[in-house]
Amino acid sequence: MRWPATIVGLLLVGGALTYLLIPPTVVAEQAISVNPGDLLSAQDRKAQPMPAVLGLNRDVAQTVLSDAALSDVKLTVKERPAAGPSAMVVAQNPSAGTTSVDTIELTVSVPAPVPDVLGKPMTDGRTALEQLGAVVEIVPQFNPSVPKGQIIDISPKPGETMPTVVSITVGDPGDALTLASVNSVDDTRCGTVDNVTINGTTVGDSVRCEPGEKPAFVEYALSRQAAALEATVGTDDRGKTGPAHVVVFGDGRELASADVGLGQSTPIRADLNGVMRMRIEVTTADPKQSPTVILGDGKLLGLPEGLNAIAAQ
Predict the structure, then answer these.
(1) Burial level of 306, CB count in 10 A (0-12/13-18/19+)?
(2) How many CA atoms lie within 13 A of 288 on its CB side?
(3) pTM (two decimals)
(4) Sequence-separated (6 or more) residues with CB below 8 Å from residue 98
(5) Which structural domain, as residue segments, surrounds residue 286?
(6) Within a domain: residue 23?
(7) Is residue 7 part of a domain?
(8) How far is 106 from 85, CA to CA, in rounded Å?
(9) Looking at the 3D structure of the chain, how many domains does it have?
C-alpha cells in the first residue's frame, strides 16, 4: 500500500509545480474586449415625439427641440404679426406629441399695430383683436347716443404697438332709477311725492323740497355708480307763488342749476360720472311765499349694475 500512495503524491506535487512554472494562456481569438463607448453608439437613438413649444421664445423653443433630439430635422421659421412680446412661438407644425417628425415649422410673432375698430360692433372688434392673439377686456360705458355695444374707445390707440391685453370701451344706453325710490343719507324739508302738477302737467315719483329762511336740501350716496340726473324742475301748481333757485352739487361742486316759479318748468340735467355724494339744494328769495319745488320724474341714469348698487343702499 505504500508504493501506490507514494506515486499519487509524486503526481500531485508535479502537477502543482507545472501550473506554477507554466501558467495557462488564453487564445486571442476567444478573448472578449468590451468598450463602453461602443455600447452607447450601438444603442438605437430614436428622436422623441414633437414637444410643445407654443408660447416659448424662439431661442428657447430651438433648445427644447435640440433636447428632444430633433436638432437635425429640417426647421422652417415664419413670422406673423401678433399681440404681446416679439419672437414668441404662436404656431407650430406638427403638433405636440407627433412621432416620426420629418420637418418642423414654427411661426413666431413680430410687433402688430392695434387695428382701428372704433365705431364697430363689439363682437367684430373683439374678433379682430383676438385673431391677433390679444386678450380683450370689455369696459361698458353709459352712452345713450350710440347703439348698444358700439366701440367708442380703445386702449392702446389704433396704430400703436399692441400689448397682450387690449381694453375696448363699448357704449351702453343703460337704465334709469327713479330718484324718489332712492334712500337719502340726509335731508331737510325735502321728501317724495307720488303725484303732483307743475305748469299744468302731472308728474309722478318726484322729489319735493320746501325752502324757507334756510335752504331745503336732500343728499344721496351715489358711490360713483350713476352717470347722470335728469328731471323736470318746477313748482307745485297748488302751492305758493314765490320764486325758487335749485342747485345740484356733486361732491361740493355745482353741476347744474335752474330758477323756477309758478307756471314755469324747465328740464335739468347733471353729469354724475365719478360723483360720490349728490346734494340738491333749494333756496327762495321770498320765504313768506315759499313754493313747493318739484323735481318731476327725477331719475338717475347709468349702467344697470351701478343703479342696482345704489338702490340696494
Answers:
(1) buried
(2) 0
(3) 0.69
(4) 49, 50
(5) 176-311
(6) no
(7) no
(8) 16
(9) 3
* 171 DSSP 8-state letter: E
DSSP 44-66: --PPPPPPP-TTSBHHHHHHHHH
Say if residue 189 is in the same domain as residue 304.
yes
* CB-facing half-sphere around the CA of 67: CA atoms within 13 A: 9
Spatial CA neighbour of 108 closest among 173, 57, 41:
57
Task: Dump the DSSP string for 260-313.
Answer: E-TT-EEEEEEE-TT-SEEEEEEE-S-GGG---EEEEEEEEEE-HHHHHHHHT-
3-state secondary structure of 186: strand
Question: Over the stretch 239-290, which tens digit does the pLDDT of each residue have?
Answer: 999 999 999 999 999 999 999 999 999 999 999 999 999 999 999 999 999 9
Q: What is the pLDDT of residues 158-186, one digit of tens each?
A: 999 999 999 999 999 999 999 999 999 99
For residue 210, give the CATH number of its domain.
2.60.120.1060
